[in-house]
Amino acid sequence: MIFVGDHFKEDGDWIWTSLCGVEKYLLGIHADGRGRAVAERFVNKELDKLKPDHMPLFVTDGYKPYQDILFERYSFFHIRNRGRGRPGKDYLVAKPDLNYGIVEKTRKGKKLEKVRRYVRFGQIPLEFLNTSAIERSNLTNRIFCSRLRRRSTTFSRSLETVESSLQIYKAFYNLCRGHQSLSIPRRQNGGKYQPISPAMKLGLTDHVWNMHEVMIFPYRQNIN
Amino acid sequence: MGERGPKQKFTDISCPNEKCRKYGRTGGDNIIANGTYETKSGVVRKYICKECGRVFNDRTGTAYQGIHTTSSKFDLVMACVANGFSVRRTADVVGCSTKTVVEWTKKGGHHASKVSESLESDGIEPVCLQFDEMLYTLKKR
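ok -> structure tokens follow
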């Protein structure tokens, strides 16, 4: 039995992605190596983008570092006995509002054999747990970014250029492209197709942008 | 000569100098016009910040800063990169060298990351967040 992800060595060049499953917003896409340190850096950077008091439902594959990082991030120290008698050992406890589920896929050769879903923290119905959105998004990433393509002669030589093209792709995907599952079809909108981008769904903008708008956007004014 | 009347106020423009007290702030009266100049994409207006004395123009702080071509050509390169064209194919379509495509990709990528960062700066509230990783090929020299 081989778990998906376990048969890869902890090296090589990897693209780390995080996606809002319902809004289809590509929160982060980053090129780096593999391992706990990289995962920690990436996940913490993505979690910093959330509102401080907001706790979404987290779903990942069975890669161990995700579990440890999320637990460390959303946990607090439970202080044991400090009164009379032998002092107890303090330990970490996950916050009660942390909801985290894991979807582990088992394959035999190239064929997917079994999908195991389980809740790691919190109370979530098992039917809510799936990673299909991000796995479908991985395919879109490979199609729309020539540097990620498989079985192709196209490849990259510089990490800086890969990172740049990924950032262009992220802005294009989130802002300039109507998502098919979010857009309103013709028959529901009086014969007119209304495209809705992931950023519109998340409330960051009110219209679908074009590339010129992205490139001319005065970011310094929005930050302040 | 232009028509007489009150001078135009540039309340939607902000100072790009990070050390300036009014960096990124719009709606003030610190920005005044400082002439215009011609580029391939048309006339570009120059400004001066009365607070710090920084001279800048319409293209400062955008991806078009410092490019010696039209903005539409630059946008075409960005659209090609975002739609999965390879560097050589983009160069063929646009009519420039591969080196230019790589340079513009770096410039556009830097700006795009700043745009995403500024849009997400207030914090976002997704219902569900998923993480994953995938393999790709990087052939280092």
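Chain B has three helices and four strands.
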